[in-house]
Every structure is written in structure tokens, then in C-alpha cells.
Amino acid sequence: MLNLPTRSPAPANPPATTRPRPRNRAATLVDALQAQVRGGELQPGDKLPTEAALMARFGVSRTVVREALSMLQASHIVQTRHGIGTFVMEVLPDTPGFRVSAAQMATLHDVIAVLELRIAVESEAASLAATRRTPDNLAQLGQALAAVSAAMDAGQHAVEADFRFHLEIASATQNAHFSTLLLALGAKAIIPRARLDGQAPVPGSEDWNYLQRVQAEHQSIYDAIAAQDAEAARTTMRMHLVNSRERRRRHAAEHAAGPAVP
Fold first, then answer.
1. Which residues, at least 6 apart from 186, have a Cβ–Cβ distance to it below 8 Å?
2. Domain annotation for the chain: domains and CATH numbers
3. Is the pLDDT of residue 138 over 70?
């Protein structure tokens, strides 16, 4: 008897090819707003900007803004009062995992410790972002970079925009744990100058020159991620954070602020 090869019957509905979904704009907006809440820029009870203001600020559609607000409501971070607006909840949910409190950032030693953690984590995050970033991730990162320059031009220290830049890199890894960690740390831990009491930076001042150097480092990180050069992204991020650590040490020495460097 001739044995013919058997063929399995084709499934009635063959499964569609699945592709990893790129991070959407709503999730990125959620990260940015959460960063403001965790970093203290938005306090419990504060009213969020209007939908139109959020659309203009982040360059997204009304649909994206409403989706992001729905996600924040589901996480009990904000609540909407119809006819009045959307407000940060008076009692915020705990951030998953660990969290750095203000008491844990009281000394130079504490600030340096967090920077050491960031050097290890964010250098790898930048490398992953370079290999995994989507066109949308790159666009969001570019907007964050531009926001830093805009804040500087407006005479601000650009803490919020700087935090968003780092958060966009974390988002581009496509690994939510990186974003969760940065949000747990908060803007005041991530951006050490958030703790400095200085005058508004003006062109030619010490603060202005400092911010210019920081922004040049941001640009190098952006360029490496845009070029999808993982090693360059890792190196430029590490250099940026090491420089930040040394700048904090020099600032403390020059202004006799905090205890001696460990």
C-alpha cells in the first residue's frame, strides 16, 4: 500500500501575525503627568491644566488627552469633577516597589547615592532605547529635548522638562519597569538642581552656563538614540550622569552646602 503523507487541515481562522505594539501617546502622557505628581510639581488637590492646554503642551490630540486622563483616573491618581475640572487626588496610591522620600535626599551623600543608582540603570536604559525606540518614541524624546531649551529661554531651571527627557528614554526601552523606577524616585531625586535655591538662570550666568552644558549632553544622548547606536547611547548617558555627580560635588564644595563628600 502506498502511504501518502498526511496534511493537517488548515485552521478555519488562522491566527493573525502579532507584532509588539509601539508605546502609544496616551501612555507617554500618563508618564509625564505622573512624573509631575510624584515629583511634587502637581500637589494633591491641584487642578490639572485644561484639555486644550495639555493638547498644546504635549502636541497630542484631544482623544489622546482623554485616554490618558481615563488611565490616571483608573489608577486613582486624579479625579474629574464634572463641570469643574480634573484634580490630583488628595490621597495618592503608593508607587509600586520602593520610593525615595524627601528625608532620604537630605544630604549630599544621599544625592550622590541616587546618582550612582541612576548611572547603573539609566546607562543601560539608554542602550535599550537606542535599539528598541519607535519613530513615535523619538518624536516624543525630541519634544522633551526642545522643552528643556524652551524652559531655559523662559528663565527656568527646566527641572520638569529635564525629568520628562529622562522619562521618555525609559519609555523607549519598551520595558515599563524603567519608567516605574524613575517615577518612584521622582523629579527631585532624578534632577538634583530641583533642590537648589538659586536665581532664575540668565544668559551668561553660572546657572545658565551649567544648563547649557547639561543640554549639550542631552543632545548627544538624543543623537545616539536617533542613530540607534546602543554603545554610544550607553556611553553618553553614563558620561552625562557622571558629570552630574561631579557637578553636585563641586557645587557643594564651592557653597559649603551639606556634609563633606564621602
1. 35, 38, 39, 40, 99, 100
2. 25-88 (1.10.10.10), 102-255 (1.20.120.530)
3. yes
Report d(CA 113, CA 140) in Å as an integer: 29
End-to-end CA distance of the chain: 86
Torsion of CA 115, 121, 127, 131, to 10 degrees: -140
Section 96-116 average pLDDT: 70
What's at 130, amino acid-wise? A
pTM above 0.85, yes or no: no
